[in-house]
Amino acid sequence: MDDINDIQNVETVGEGKQYIVVHLGNEQYGIDIKYIDNIVRMSKITRIPMSQRYFKGVINLRGEIIPVMSLRLKFDLEPDEYTNATRIIIIKLESQSAIGIIVDEVKEVVTLDEGSIEKTNSSDANDIRTQYLSGVGKHVDGLITLLNIVSVINDKEKEII
Amino acid sequence: MDVSQYLEIFIDETKEHLQNLSDQLMVLEQEPENMDVINEIFRAAHSLKGMAGTMGFKRMQRLTHDMENVFQEIRSENMKVESELIDVLFRALDALEAYLNEIMETANEGTEENEEIVNTLNAIAAKATGKEAPEQPAKKEEAAGTEASAASSDFQEEAKYYSISVSDFEKTTFEKAQNDNQNIFGITVYLQESCILKAARAFLVFKALEELGEVIKAVPSVQDIEDEKFEFDFSLLYLTKESLETIKNAIETVSEVKQAIVGNYNMSDASAESTAAASKTEAKAEEPEAKQPSANTPAPAAAQQAVKKPEAKPAQKSAQKNAAQKTAKPTVGRTVRVDIEKLDVLMNLVSELIIAKNGIVSISSADEESRSDSALNEQIEYLESVTTNLHESVMKVRMVPIESVVNRFPRMIRDLTKKLGKKMELHMSGEETELDRTVIDEIGDPLQHLLRNSADHGLESNEERIALGKDEIGHIYLDAYQDGNNVNIEVRDDGAGINVEKVRNKAIEKGTITPEQAEAMSDKEIIDLLFKPSFSTAEKITDVSGRGVGLDVVKTKIEGLGGNIECKTEMGEGSSFIIRLPLTLAIIQALMVELGSEKYAIPLGNIQTIEDIPFSEVKHVQTKEVINLRDTVIPLVRLDKILDVEPGEFKPESLTVVIVKKGDKQAGLVVDNLIGQQEIVIKSIGDYINCSKLIGGATILGDGEIALILEVNTLV
């Protein structure tokens, strides 16, 4: 009996994954909601000298010091311009400390089922940006690029400082 | 009896005794005739045996008992100390340590019998006395047998309490008690002949009795009983409101009590109408009872084992169950032994803290007019001084001398001497240097690794040493000392040193660096390659110093503790590894400085002085800026350049220079502005950001802003 119930549960969860849709320039990106710890407004970022270019610095989030990276810089887009809509999304991966990513705007939460997600072809791994993607989601508002947030964060980019 | 509450003390003390034994054995190996040492070992073994016995760890007790026997023979000069004996004793120590580790994890000594060591020890002892080695298991059975037969022997004679003489004073006590409806019992307790810790058992009997009533008189006297000056029985006069059976049961729950005879004591006719008949039937009934504890006590673990075995077999494979068992058992917490004086200081500070709080409360509740800022400031200053002292004291409580880690190394080097066939000596200094407990717990393995490295790879073989005209015996030094806010630990050897060329070639061969890179790298940079993963210069792998998974692990571990490691080497002269560890963690005193619009903290422990230097005094040596300060040339570090700070608009007329030091090196850090001294809490900035180790962490200031902490060690 229990087993059957479990399976049903899995199915209901599996029907659709929830993503937070964020704007970065003209594109919209989706971040799996299960990794998201918090979304905060822009606060004062303390610069860390000599760090990787895409790290803007650290913020004080209720007594915790959290490093913040700019997705724009990471994806080689134009540098951020902070507006009222700019948000820092705090990501917490299992057994790792929290990290914040700066996005232009947080739009909405969408639920995408398996059918509306198209896996990207990972053969093109040479392109920096494709390895950060897990797929493309089709939604009423258009296409959402789904981020593979784990690889975005854990990518030890060999950047000469 | 529940002894689990003593477990922690037992473990602590056992560790001390084992360490002591190991130290003394090392001495004994050098001076086999030294009677003081032999006596000391005997005493330590004896105490260990006693402690293990009290805690019911029979295997440990047996092993120490046999060690003690051997030393008894040595003490009475029936035999001499030989190297073979020392080896066995060291093995016995290892076995004891294994028991201890098992106890620490599971609160149980495990089932390892170490039969071989016991037999060897017995054989040695037997050779000395010319007797046959006693068969241990047989002895046990025999003991059980004799005791069973003894139990059935004549009881009349055994109720020895009749012979206790009573003084007038005691008589009045009895009379009073009788009027008070208390029973007066005479009690004679017989312990098993196999009982080793008679005094402890007697003590437990007393303890059990005192919970239920009052012991009036004991024969032999309580003092004699405590000193173990009695055979296997003792008698008591006892006042209680409980019934005879209750008392009897209470006594017999104490293990290794063979028999307890309890009867009404009639003081008017001390020698008369005991309940002889009653006691006889009782005693008979008690026989099977008496057997039970006796079967239990000599080998509780064995019994347990027998019970466990059927279920244990399938369980052995499932690690899960094992883990569950482990969590269920009362595992031992980590403890720090604290000097009572340190605790008193803490207590005082806490009361001062309360006074300070009250001061602030009274100010805030004062009338609007009478409230003055100066009074508040005064209180805040007071509070500050109290919290600073409190922090210091708490840190002190956490500090443990490094001795507790390093004192196992002489033994290790001794073993390595035998294993590697190289003669070597370990010289240690600064064992009293104190470090934070968390650091102490972690530092053991890296140090051990470095020492093994020195012994195995560092030192040449004896023949080579002679050929080189060096002292045949290799020397390894382990020095610990405090240096400002750091503790340095140096592992040094007078061996061959590191062959930089060999490392360079190996690195190229392994593809770690390209030949072009190798050309450009300095010797120091090459040596730093040793700390890279999978790098070992030894031609052959030995089980002494691992398989090349080595220095990188050491480095990671030490950096995890907030320290760093450095290697210096001189071909033919030897090499040394210097570990620098922070003295305290978490909270430090720091100088806050300003660079442009950014704030940085410099740990006060690194700062020597702060100087105001006119531009004209800045000199250039090899295109580097230096200043000449009181006859020392100190290089200047332009922090704003290194940290890439946007320059402020304000142009000073002179330079504000913070002179910092690392070891014997100094540097002047140029800052824009000084803010002041502050106590800061160090927070990590995580490992995502790669900031080339210039930043040691960050701290949150009073206004919520973040200031970065400069890692002076990498700047100098």
Question: What does this molecule look like?
Answer:
- The complex is a heterodimer of chains A (161) and B (716).
- Chain A is mainly beta and 161 residues long.
- Chain A has helices at residues 2-14, 71-74, 149-154, and strands at residues 16-24, 27-32, 36-41, 55-61, 64-70, 87-91, 99-103, 105-113, 117-119, 133-139, 142-147.
- Chain A has one domain (14-153): OB fold (Dihydrolipoamide Acetyltransferase, E2P) (Beta Barrel).
- The radius of gyration of chain A is 17 Å and the shape is globular.
- Residues 1-13 of chain A have low confidence and may be disordered.
- In chain B, helix 3 (58-75) packs parallel to helix 5 (115-129), helix 4 packs antiparallel against helix 5 and helix 6 (136-151) packs antiparallel against helix 11.
- With 716 residues, chain B is of the alpha+beta class.
- The longest helix of chain B is centred in the middle third of the chain and has 26 residues, at 373-398.
- Chain B has 25 helices and 22 strands.
- At the A-B interface, strand 4 and strand 5 of A face strand 21 and strand 22 of B.
